Amino acid sequence: MKDNKSIQWQHSHNFGVDNKHNANKVKKVFWLTTIVMVLEISAGIWSGSMALLADGWHMGTHSAAFLITMFTYAYAKKHANNQAFSFGTGKVNYLGGFTSAIALGIVALLMVVESVHRILEPQPILFNQAIAVTIIGLAVNVVSVFVLHDDHHHDHHHKHSDKHTHDHHHDHNLKAAYFHVLADTLTSLLAIVALLAGKYFGLIWMDALVGIIGAIVIARWSYGLMKESSEVLLDKSDDKSALKTIVEVINAEKGVTIRDIHLWRIAPAHQALILSLEIKNTDTLSDYKLKIQKILPEISHITLEVSKV
């Protein structure tokens, strides 16, 4: 029996995305985030600022998330042509996005815990030093946002314009990293507001309040990304316009009945279709495939199950 590695198919199963450009973006932001993380944690301990320490600790969790992102890119590239993966490694981007979403949710929970702790146990803060370091962190986060910004946000020329279809064109791994940086930017801003309020108005409780507000916003981002990526991981058929188009194409032919249909996403810009038909003339099967792929080019893999009437 031949080794699986020697088996070749005429049809390509490499449905992944070209991640080289995105991977380079994430690497740059990872190093920026990690350097600022070390700076903020060190300065937070020295100055006694819980806001600054929490922000640095928060950035540390995102550095870990970026490591997950880089791993998924490397894994997808390594196994891009591995035939053991029936539909390629395109879903690894959604898996990375889902994992990062969980990390965001944990960060939000810990921010709430830290904020409550600051209310119960306030302490003296070296405001000037803490504010200076936090501003540096904010500047780095703003630069990182521009580095990670997904060019696909400006592309509105898709065949289908519904929200789900448009969202699935994005690299969810990059989107997760982008959300992490936005979360860092938000917490830096909130830390600056809290420190200024404490320095000039003596409102130490602001430190805790903005921490809770930031946690709520981050939790919402986490839930949205988790929901979107999990639907793809669970093979949810949510592209209603594509399903409707397929049914219309088949019903336009005489002597054909649809028994079952499965449509799911296998990569950011690729879908797979299994179509079960009752048909009189099997000679026209190739015509159905061509018609469907011409109208819906995102469907990269079509399998027809046929029973003759």
From TrEMBL:
Gene3D superfamilies according to UniProt: Cation efflux protein transmembrane domain
The keyword Transport is assigned to this record: yes
Subcellular location: Membrane
Topology of this chain in the membrane: Multi-pass membrane protein
Record bears the keyword Membrane: yes
Domain Cation efflux protein transmembrane, first and last residues per copy: 29-234
InterPro entries for the chain: Cation_efflux (IPR002524), Cation_efflux_TM (IPR058533), Cation_efflux_TMD_sf (IPR027469), Msc2-like (IPR045316)
TM region positions: 29-53, 59-76, 92-113, 125-148, 177-197, 203-223
This protein's UniProt keywords: Ion transport, Membrane, Transmembrane, Transmembrane helix, Transport, Zinc, Zinc transport
Stated name of the protein: Transporter
